[in-house]
Amino acid sequence: MAKAKFDVYQHVTDEIIAQIEAGTPPWRKPWTGGAGGAQMPARFNGEDYRGINVLMLWATAASKGYASARWMTYRQAQELGAQVRKGETSATVVKFGTVERETEDGDEKKISYCRAYRVFNSDQIDGLPEDFYTRPEPPRDLGTKADPELEAFIGRTGAAIHSSPEPRAYYDIRADRIHMPPIETFLSAQAFYGTILHEITHWSGAEKRLDRFKRFSDRTAYAFEELVAEVGACMLGVQIGVAPEFDQSASYVEGWLAAMKGDNRVIFRAASEAQKAVDFILGEAGRATEQAA
C-alpha cells in the first residue's frame, strides 16, 4: 500500500485543535508564566519566525517547557559545533515559496508550495554558544500604574483611544475609536496593555488601513476576527515587552474549533492576517518616531 502523502495543513491544524481542546491554545500558553517568559521564536541565525510558525513553535515550547528562543535543524546544530541530545524529538515548521514550471505552451508559470521541515530548540542541544540559551527568569510585572514606554508606543500607533467608567473594552468601527476602562480598574497594568493591544489589532483592520473586515465577511467572520486579534496582540506584545492576558468566552473557542475542523487552512489565514496587522502597527509607530526626530 502506498504511503499517505503528508498534509502539512492538516498536521498543523490538528495540533492547534488539540491545544485548544486541552484548554491551552498556543497563543495563550506563553503568557501563563513559563520558564523564561514569552519570546519570538527565531532561526539559528537570529531571524524571527513569522506567521503560523510562531504559533507552532510557541505551542511546542509551552508543552515541552523550552525557555530558549532559537530553533535549528540537526545539520545547523552540527555546523555550529553542537549536538542534538539523543532521544530528543523535533518540532515541525513550514516554508512557503514558489517555483517556476514550464507549461505545455512553453511559458513559465509560478507554482506555490508549502513544505514542512524539522527543527530543534536550543534547550535540546549541547555545545551551543551561551547566547543561544535563555536562562529562566521571573516574568515582568508592570504593577498597577501606567508604563511610560508602553504609553508612548501606543500613542505613536495613531489609534484614537477613549476612556470612561464604562466597564467594556472594544473597537468602535463606526467611530474608528477604541474604548478602554480606566487603567486603575484593571487587576494589573499587564492586563490593561494586553487588552489595548487586542483592540489595536482590531483597529488595524479598518477599511482605510488593512481593510480586513470586508475581506472576511461571512457568518464566521466575527470569531475569525477575534482569533486574528488575539494572535496579533500576543505577537505584538512580545515585540514591545508586555505579556497580554486573554479572557475569551467559550463561544469564541467553539467557533474557532468548528471553523478549523471544517477548513484546515483557517488558522493559517488567521496567523497571516495577524502578522500583517503587527507589521502595520509597528510600521505606523516607527514612522511617528521618525517624524518626531
From TrEMBL:
Domain N-terminal: 7-120
Annotated ranges, domain Polyvalent protein metallopeptidase: 149-272
Pfam families: ArdcN, MPTase-PolyVal
Bilayer-spanning residue ranges: none
InterPro entries the record matches: Antirestriction_ArdC (IPR017113), ArdC_N (IPR013610), MPTase-PolyVal (IPR041459)
Superkingdom field: Bacteria
Any one GO molecular-function label of the UniProt entry: single-stranded DNA binding
Protein name per the record: Antirestriction protein ArdC
Native source species: Salipiger thiooxidans
